[in-house]
UniProtKB/TrEMBL annotation:
GO terms for molecular function: serine-type endopeptidase activity. It holds the Pfam family Peptidase_S9. PANTHER family: DIPEPTIDYL PEPTIDASE FAMILY MEMBER 6, SERINE PEPTIDASE S9 FAMILY MEMBER. GO terms for biological process: proteolysis. This is TolB protein, periplasmic protein involved in the tonb-independent uptake of group A colicins. Gene3D superfamilies: alpha/beta hydrolase (3.40.50.1820), TolB, C-terminal domain (2.120.10.30). Coiled coil: none annotated. Keywords: Hydrolase. The keyword Hydrolase applies.
């Protein structure tokens, strides 16, 4: 599966929707007419996805008296890799929750709270519209936090840039003043700024717009990058301890030593073959993203120390805590206090969202209290029923699919179906989480149901060969099962998939003509050209060095999700057998292709498949969004896309007239 093997991305399928008016079958188009707002009396609308509040990370103080919580506000995008949170502190004794982050509109959001060892101070980060990341300090007993000025913290993927080194000192990895910034967060906020600046220089015609890449690294070792500094939060005094491509910061239990990974030499100077020498592909991904040189230094002097200095003190190793009872069925444990006498739970259901504290100082673990509520608007929404479908795959395996019915479905009425596919995804007795109104998804199943379509999620057991011929095995029998039950109109079946699901859609269309309509977003169909095409967000260095994306792609296809076993010139037959583009002559189904131009799955993959169908005069629509990456996330684009989904499906799955 393309997502699970790629450590390079933040939470990827994080998306939302548009304004919609439901009509009974046949499905109608979206519009923005107001709906009744009584409980369960209106239909889910794409706009609703931009109303969702969420709880992010929660960090308990070491003494267990307080928890710092990220409360994520709705924003202009459904991409949760851009922090939109407030930082709130919960007092476990009084059960009071208050905001300590700045209310200023200058900041997009706040994130990454961490407590000092003595529980007196809380550090966290802010980010603004220019992708400048600033550290903040809040002290217990004060009303609000204060910024530590003069820093632009370097943010990477799963890459902790701040850590306490004692009770009053904090280690920070920050960009040097002349450094050329990059990274996932920088890219998501500036949206291809380096690309835009290049085109601006080209239009001015005053300076060269050239960029040069070398296959055998010659990058200067003194290129400005990052500084590791130690800061005294009382005096503001700071010292520089290290310099370079620094990642994965951590501090010893006693605060005396700091450990980090360093790109040494890193991409592009490091031979590509060195990354293929790792035993597992995950280790190789880590090496690409964070470097391979582990360093341990003295937190005061910066002198190199032996790695054994970072060994944890055995006396601080905590024993496993007993199970903490949930406040109500369906509640999910968010975090537990160090002593096990308090915990936070979150519930997301038909009543909205609630954050619960269980226990606390002087309170029994059987006692719970809701400290935060949001998303009450979900009570207005009328939903259809979800049904479990048991069936057998083409090769005789017992599988489970889930069917979401339209809210106004009349039993005995045959309905059109949107089949959502994703290789490797299988289902059990519990309804899929993607059915939840509060689950962000720019292709949300409930939105298709609100348009009058049944939504089928079949199981697709993992096939390591990635053979196109195996794709129908779990899909077509699930469709047969709901047709035989009289639920589905067999002449009005559509298929949809995103990312690896997009790959599956394109592959399915080469193996069967069962579908009346298809939608593939961020899909790939030519593994040979995929191997050699840069990540969209890396091409000009916005998210990272172009060659880092290239090495990740090689690893993914040779050793990771692609499972090809090697490069295209060594295993050409495997690449061909998994490339739907080479069987595009078999496609008879009308196809909508959706792609963001900065996607790590390059937009050229959709370009190629569109060209193949265009050459054959077959029905295809290619929907391109500038500034988007793997998921369509910006509000205007999501709203536009849902209008297009509605029109496309109404046209291509309309009842037959003969």
């Amino acid at each position: 599966m393309i997502i699970k093997d790629i450590l390079f991305f933040f939470a990827i399928i994080l998306l939302y929707g548009v304004g919609i008016l439901f009509a009974q079958v046949p499905p109608s188009s979206f519009n923005n007419n107001a709906q009744q707002k009584r409980v369960g009396q209106r239909l889910f609308q794409p706009e609703d996805l931009f109303r969702v509040w969420q709880i992010g990370a929660s960090k308990w103080s070491p003494d267990g008296r307080r928890s710092a919580i990220e409360v994520l506000r709705p924003g202009r995008t459904i991409d949760r890799s851009v922090p939109t949170g407030e930082i709130r502190v919960l007092d476990a004794e009084t059960r009071s929750l208050r905001i300590i982050s700045s209310p200023s509109s200058a900041y997009i959001g706040f994130f990454n709270p961490i407590w000092s060892p003595d529980s007196r101070h809380l550090a966290f980060l802010s980010v603004d519209e220019n992708a400048v990341v600033q550290p903040w300090i809040w002290t217990v007993g004060t009303k609000t936090a204060r910024p530590l000025t003069g820093f632009d913290v370097k943010i990477g993927l799963l890459d902790n840039p701040i850590a306490w080194a004692g009770n009053n000192q904090i280690a920070i990895v920050a960009w040097e003043k002349e450094a050329e910034k990059s990274g996932p967060l920088y890219f998501r906020i500036t949206r291809g700024q380096k690309i835009a600046e290049g085109y601006k220089r080209a239009a001015e015609m005053k300076a060269p717009t050239v960029s040069v890449l070398e296959s055998q690294g010659i990058a200067k070792s003194d290129t400005p990058n990052a500084l590791l500094k130690i800061v005294d939060i009382r005096s503001g005094k700071q010292r520089t301890l290290a310099q370079g491509g620094i990642h994965r910061l951590s501090v010893s239990e006693d605060g005396r030593f700091i450990s980090f990974l360093r790109e040494s030499p890193g991409i592009p100077n490091q031979p590509v073959s060195s990354y293929f020498a790792f035993e597992t592909v995950d280790e190789a991904y880590d090496a690409v993203n964070w470097g391979t040189s582990r360093n341990v230094i003295d937190a005061q002097t910066g002198n190199l120390m032996d790695s054994s200095s970072m060994t944890a003190n055995p006396s601080t190793v905590r024993t496993p805590r007993a199970a903490i009872p949930a406040p109500k069925p369906g509640a999910r444990l968010l975090s537990a206090a160090p002593g096990g006498d308090a915990a936070l739970f979150i519930t997301n259901d038909s009543e909205g969202s609630k954050l619960w504290i269980v226990g606390g100082k002087g309170q029994s673990l059987t006692e719970s209290f809701a400290v935060w509520e949001a998303n009450e608007w979900v009570r207005e929404i009328k939903l259809g029923a979800a049904e479990l479908i048991s069936y057998k795959s083409s090769d005789g395996k017992h599988l489970t699919a889930w069917l979401l019915l339209p809210p106004n479905h009349t039993p005995g009425t045959k309905i059109p179906i949107v089949t959502i596919v994703y290789p490797g995804q299988t289902f059990g007795q519990t309804a899929p989480g993607s059915f939840s109104l509060l689950q962000p998804n720019f292709e949300h199943p409930q939105l298709f149901a609100a348009l009058g379509y049944g939504v089928l999620l079949p199981s697709m057991p993992e096939d390591e060969s990635r053979s196109l011929q195996q794709l129908p095995n779990g899909v077509l029998p699930a469709i047969d099962a709901i047709v035989e039950r009289g639920i589905a109109d067999s002449n009005r079946i559509a298929v949809l998939g995103q990312s690896d699901g997009g790959f599956a859609v394109l592959g399915l269309l080469t193996q069967t003509n069962r579908f009346r309509s298809a939608i593939a977003s961020a899909g790939f169909s030519n593994l040979v050209s995929l191997y050699g095409t840069f990540y969209g967000q890396h091409r000009y260095g916005d998210a990272g060095h172009p060659q880092s994306g290239a090495v990740l792609r090689m690893l993914q296809l040779e050793k990771g999700y692609g499972g090809m076993g090697g490069a295209p010139w060594a295993f050409s037959s495997r690449y061909r057998e998994s490339s739907a583009i080479l069987q595009a002559d078999k496609v008879m189904t009308p196809l909508m292709l959706v792609h963001g131009d900065l996607d790590f799955v390059p937009i050229q993959q959709s370009e190629e498949f569109f060209t193949a169908l265009y050459r054959q005069d077959k029905r295809a629509v290619f929907v391109r969004y500038q500034g988007e990456w793997h998921t369509i996330a910006n509000r205007p684009n999501v709203l536009d896309l849902w209008q297009r989904f509605s029109i496309w499906l109404a046209e291509t799955t309309a009842p037959r007239t003969h």
